[in-house]
Amino acid sequence: MFRYFLFYSCNIGPLHLKNLESLRIYLTPLENNFLQTIGAMPSLKSLSLWNCGLNGTLATQVWQNLTSLEELSVEFSSFPSNFIQVIGILTSLKRLEVSGWEVNGNLSMHAWQTLTSLEELSVEFLSLPSNFIQDIGAMTSLKNLYVFDCEVNGNLSINGPLHVKNLESLSIDSTPLESNFLQTIGAVPSLKSISLWNCGLNGTLRTQG
């Protein structure tokens, strides 16, 4: 059984790798139907795209066939604005890493709310709205959140109730925070670990009863 396959700056043709569990594509311009071109991959659990680019709008139907996908990593790649909405149909997806992502068009932050099965989310080198933590509030299964070196229109802030009731680990690095961030995030009862570095933060964590 194939467990790992690598494309490196090559042309992708029909492969129909039905037993493939892990696929990595590097340095390869992609068409929006690249999954359809590769063929059915019902056993795929891990997909990694590095320095790739997609043109046009992604077709939802093709992604629906990735019924076993648990891990998805998209790094330094250009993708259509409906990408998050499309992968929201992946009910098996547990881990998502997005780094240095260039969005073609306007990304609706409400799209993140479709990722209800996600347990771990890592965002790096992205441009985020100040209410990003609020936007991902519908991720009720989220346990680990990592935010590294992201640009924010202002500071990351929390205004209103939080719904990430299962969050256990929070790590924020080189991303500006509001001064009351610790007080607000302290209301999450499941939180076990907080790591903050170079966030320009002043404040104290609210004492839990």
UniProtKB/TrEMBL annotation:
SUPFAM superfamilies: RNI-like. It comes from the Eukaryota. Keywords: Signal. Coiled coil: none annotated. PANTHER family: DNA DAMAGE-REPAIR/TOLERATION PROTEIN DRT100 (PTHR48060), L DOMAIN-LIKE PROTEIN (PTHR48060:SF21). This is Receptor-like protein kinase 5. The lineage of its organism: Eukaryota, Viridiplantae, Streptophyta, Embryophyta, Tracheophyta.
